[in-house]
């Protein structure tokens, strides 16, 4: 998928896609982790991994596969 995103696209609390422009070179806007460089420490990676199932569950099975 090489679609150029013109907006963040992250789901907001309202359930609508975020329309904020992403940070250049990143996929998300500054509100949705665009400024984050990702987990750097083992602790941070572990925390992120713990959050994954919750995030996937929240998004629902409709988007899986
Ligand atoms: Zn966003």
Strand content: under 5%
Helix fraction bin: 25-40%
The main pleated sheet reads as: none
Overall shape: it is flat
Bound molecules: zinc ion
Unreliable residue runs:
none
Average of pLDDT: 76
| CA(first)-CA(last) distance | 15 Å
The ordered H/E elements are H
Task: Give an overview in words.
By secondary structure, the chain is mostly helical. The protein has one domain (1-59). It has one helix and no strands. It has one helix spanning 42-59. It is flat. The chain starts with 41 loop residues before the first helix and ends in a 6-residue tail after the last helix. Bound molecules: zinc ion. Zinc ion binds at residues 8, 10, 18, 20, 28-29, 31-32.
Give a quick summary of the entry:
The chain has 65 residues and is mostly helical. It has one helix spanning 42-59.
Question: Keywords, please?
Answer:
65 residues; binds zinc ion; single chain; mainly alpha
Fold topology:
Layout: H1 42-59
Bound molecules: zinc ion.
């Amino acid at each position: 998928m090489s679609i150029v995103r013109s907006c963040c696209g992250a789901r907001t609390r309202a359930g609508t896609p975020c329309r904020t422009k992403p940070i250049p070179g990143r996929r998300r806007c500054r509100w949705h982790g665009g400024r984050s460089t990702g987990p750097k420490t083992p602790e941070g990676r572990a925390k992120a991994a713990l959050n994954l199932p919750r995030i996937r569950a929240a998004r629902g099975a409709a988007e899986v596969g």
